[in-house]
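During the reporting period the student researcher (J.K.) took over the structure-prediction task from the postdoctoral fellow and processed the backlog of single-chain submissions. One of the processed entries is reproduced below for the supervisory committee.
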Amino acid sequence: MNMQSPVLDKDLVALQEVRDLVARAAPAAKAFARMDAAQAWGIAQAVCTACEERAEHYARWAVEETGIGRVEDKYFKNLLASRDLLAFYRDKSLGGVQVDQANKMLLVARPAGVVVGLVASTSPIATLYFKVLSCLMTRNAIILSPHPLAIECSIDAAEYLRDAAERAGAPKDAIQIQRTPTLQATRAMMGDPGVNLILATGGGPMVRAAYSSGNPALGVGAGNVPVYVDSSADVALAVSETLAAKCFDYGSPCSSPSAVFVHAAVAERFDALMQRSGAFYCNPDEQRQLEAFAFPNGHLNPKIVGRSAAWIAQQAGLRGAANASVLVGTIAEVSAKAAMAHEKLSPILGLRHVQDREQAIRDASAMLAISGAGHTSGIFSRDIETITLWGCALDVNRTVVNKGVAMGVIGDGTRLAPTFTIGTGFAGRSSIGENVGPEHLINWKRIAFPIDEAAPSAAPALSVGEQEIDARVREAVRNILALALNTKGTV
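J.K. obtained the following structure tokens:
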């Protein structure tokens, strides 16, 4: 008699998988926490080298698997998320003990523990690199939840980095990844009591699910970036940088310029330079065709995300745009009904001429009220007053000046922290308003001494150095852990 093996329900298999992942991550996180900051940094450096070695390989794989973006830009982002990330944090304290002599305090780093990292489809490997290295630098265990569109390259990259980390001395299971990332299973994992923190990057529903999971979450909000070209701007620079930012990874980053507001005094020159540089300006009929394809029924068509302008033009039936780098549509009125006032995640750019900076600020504010509040803006201007007014008046948490916003916002050409998780703050319904980095994956415990040294109960002055106090604390905690965990480890 032939007995067929029962077919297991995919969701049940996925749910069991996440329970197992969290169960294995917990002891890995505890083992990692017993290492010192120098050991963690050494592991992160070794894994960073591995990231660099396969940065181009995974860039090609990600584009082939997802159909989103350009290989050369994915390669750039993979390096920024590894080599540039570690260079930025090389001299920053991400663990151990700090001595605050002025305020009579000891600060002791506490890692989060088990971190769940959501991986977006638009930059899967860069996001994965960034979250893995951020956790390694801060002695956290991470479980990655890949986007289904990028599952194969994400799993391969995670396993490759896991092996590199373990060879360098990382605890077993410090890096894990879901192999069956169903929506139900990922939600269950985010709500698991064994998870200590969620790094949420991706679509709005998943980010909201992270915030409602019952566990701490650092999430992001939608982008919809307005850029202002002032009458004092270097127009040639504004055109070249705007086009570079809009073409970057075919407009798929949430920090890509969404609409440009151009002062009437320089509008004619700006438009002429844009067209000479490869931008295709749609006439009214062409714009209706483009919007019908890109925003069917008023909603973004996911097929256009990270696709080339030429491909979108062909699909939309636009003639004469085969060589276009960017497709430009006019914003006649900034309202929720105007497709060009919404986030586009593609090389489609909204354009509006304005009479003065006050109108630019009003229109940009109206656009951000539709979507993108708290995220990012850009400005091209030589006037510090205009720059300051624009940055202060708009409800955004970062403004990039005289630089392509998609690159500047992640630290290329600016001093903003390299990141692939951009906080949108209160306005964007996010718990954090800055570029998320490894420093957000640790808490600093504070041990405060009395500041009045003459008082009878005053503690001794903190005259010891940071290295000495660090050694003393490690020795004390080592003994405590040996008793509590019945193991010999280091802190």
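The committee noted the following: Residues 20-219+437-441 form a domain with the Aldehyde Dehydrogenase; Chain A, domain 1 fold (CATH 3.40.605.10).
J.K. will present the remaining backlog at the next meeting.
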